[in-house]
Amino acid sequence: MSLTVKAYAKINLWLDITGRRSDGYHTLNTVMRRIDLYDDVVITTRSGSDITVSCSSPDIPSDERNIAYKAAAAFISGTQKNISVDIRINKRIPVGAGLGGSSADGAAVLIALNELYGRRFDTEELCRIGARLGADVPFCITGGTARCTGIGEITEPLTCSDFAALIAVPPFACLTAKAYKQYDVSPIPEKSGFDAYCNSIGSSLSSLAGGVYNVFETLYDDDRITALKDSLIAAGALGACMSGSGSAVFGIFPDIESAKSASEKLDCKTKFAVEAI
User: Fold this and answer.
1) Which of 41, 123, 223, 265 could form a disulfide with 108 if both were Cys (CB 3.0 to 4.6 A apart)?
2) pLDDT at res. 80
3) How many CB atoms lie within 10 A of CB 106?
4) pLDDT value for 176
5) CATH dotted code for 164-275
6) Where are the domains of the chain?
7) What is the average per-residue pLDDT within 92-108?
């Protein structure tokens, strides 16, 4: 049996670190929104008892380090089925950009296998499995817009204004683990206003765009990130912010036409005009 699933990227409209647990995981306040940039994940099952992963990007591991591999293993363990799973990932989401590509691939594997095997798990249980793989996986399963707390795995749907975005990816990646270690060395106080922002993003696009926030921008204090944000604002963005732990920066636009028009003005090799979905 075979099934192809779109693994959608996300952006963080708000991202703040609120503390660090005794197990080393960091607690977060974040608002995530799905965008229509995606990887194609092809899942094929057959008789046997092995898992294989192949990817169009050489930067992606093809062994048990890959979240997609871990997702297949978790599903097999949960169902106690004796099957082999072949996973093929056609990568479009940039690696190391803070757009959730790895988590999206893992979520796609869980969704595909659940569909192929008669929807064995409901969405809530599938999210519980996903949370063991990565904090962003539950959101990547449900999509939409969500307020996420805990280590990111506790999701609450939000009403959000429609918008488009222009995503600019600089020619360097940011490693999530390294970013959080940098925070541990130089922690930044939690920013106030999270609840108010969550309540405002459905009321107007100006509230959504004007309130975007990412603690890692302050932590990095990187002129290259600042320059990209400034370029997006100069091209017409209503607000601009880094996503995740970086390095991608997005600008908020009222519609896809204006995002595409701004893309022509932006001096950045890797860029995507996308819609929030």
Assistant:
1) 41
2) 87
3) 30
4) 86
5) 3.30.70.890
6) 2-157, 164-275
7) 96
Residues 147 and 18: beta-carbon distance below 8 Å = no
Residue range 2-157, CATH number? 3.30.230.10
Our answer to whether residue 178 is catalytic in this structure is no
Among 10, 70, 229, 271, which one carries the catalytic annotation?
10
Q: Report CA 54 to chain centroid distance, whole Å.
A: 21
Burial label, 178 (beta-carbon count in 10 A; 0-12, 13-18, 19+): exposed
- Tell me the pLDDT tens digit for each residue of 251-265: 999 999 999 999 999
Tokens of 94: 């940039």
Answer whether 259's CB lies under 8 Å from 253's CB: yes
Residue 10 falls in the annotated catalytic set: yes
Q: Which of 16, 39, 105, 136 is catalytic?
A: 136
To the nearest 10 degrees (0 to 180), the angle between helices 67-79 and 123-131 is: 130
Q: 3-state class of 234 per DSSP? A: helix
Query: Can you tell me which residue has the tokens 């995002």?
Result: 259
Entry pTM: 0.96
Q: How far apart are the first and last CA of the chain?
A: 29
Report whether 30 contacts 15 (CB < 8 A): yes
The three-state secondary structure class of 113 is: helix
Mean pLDDT to the nearest integer, 215-233: 96
